[in-house]
Amino acid sequence: MKKLILITATFGFAAAITASAADGKTNWDSLCAKCHGADGKGQTKMGQKLGVKDFTDAKVQAEIKDDAAFKTIKEGMKDADGKTMMKAFDTLSDEEIKGLVTFVRGLKS
Question: 84 forms bridges with which residues in the sheet?
Fold first, then answer.
């Protein structure tokens, strides 16, 4: 019986991770790609204007901490003058934001 519970819990956890990653891709495509690009390189007109980072670069990925990425998605980002660089996505659930962070991590080359 314990094995059955453990197996069920493991499959449930794996399904949740897979669903979270799928939601991350969906949210990326609808909310982030217009600036960051579908591939995460930031080679869009708006991305170049804002100077967004190339999320496929391992060095850029190493500089980003998950908690800081979460906070930036939730609260947005402003420049030194207080101008909004990225709007807050405060309507996303914490799980959806975690899915986006996981998706961004997967962009690394």
Answer: 78
> Of 94, 77, 91, nearest to 31 (Cα)?
91
- CA–CA gap between residue 67 and residue 65 (Å, rounded): 6
CB atoms within 10 A of CB 56: 16
What's the residue count for the chain? 109
pTM score, two decimals? 0.77
pLDDT band at 101 (very low <50, low <70, confident <90, very high): very high
All domains of the chain, ordered by start, with CATH? Answer: 2-105 (1.10.760)
pLDDT at 8: 53
Is the backbone of residue 96 left (phi > 0), alpha (psi -120 to 50) or beta?
alpha
